[in-house]
From TrEMBL:
<dbReference type="InterPro" id="IPR004839">
    <property type="entry name" value="Aminotransferase_I/II_large"/>
</dbReference>
<dbReference type="GO" id="GO:0030170">
    <property type="term" value="F:pyridoxal phosphate binding"/>
</dbReference>
<dbReference type="GO" id="GO:0004400">
    <property type="term" value="F:histidinol-phosphate transaminase activity"/>
</dbReference>
<dbReference type="InterPro" id="IPR015424">
    <property type="entry name" value="PyrdxlP-dep_Trfase"/>
</dbReference>
<keyword id="KW-0808">Transferase</keyword>
<keyword id="KW-0032">Aminotransferase</keyword>
<protein>
    <submittedName>
        <fullName>Histidinol-phosphate aminotransferase</fullName>
        <ecNumber>2.6.1.9</ecNumber>
    </submittedName>
</protein>
<dbReference type="InterPro" id="IPR015422">
    <property type="entry name" value="PyrdxlP-dep_Trfase_small"/>
</dbReference>
<feature type="domain" description="Aminotransferase class I/classII large">
    <location>
        <begin position="3"/>
        <end position="45"/>
    </location>
</feature>
<dbReference type="Pfam" id="PF00155">
    <property type="entry name" value="Aminotran_1_2"/>
</dbReference>
Amino acid sequence: HDAAALAAKLREQGVIVRHFKQQRIAQFLRISIGTPEQHQALLEGLSDI
């Protein structure tokens, strides 16, 4: 998956990540995890993709 597509799929699952559109960093996502529950939601979201 490219970063934009991955971000869109995670958002569909309720996981909010930040995709950067600037060319030099367009292949990256910023992911901040606060609670253990948010960490688990991210892992589940990624495993579903």
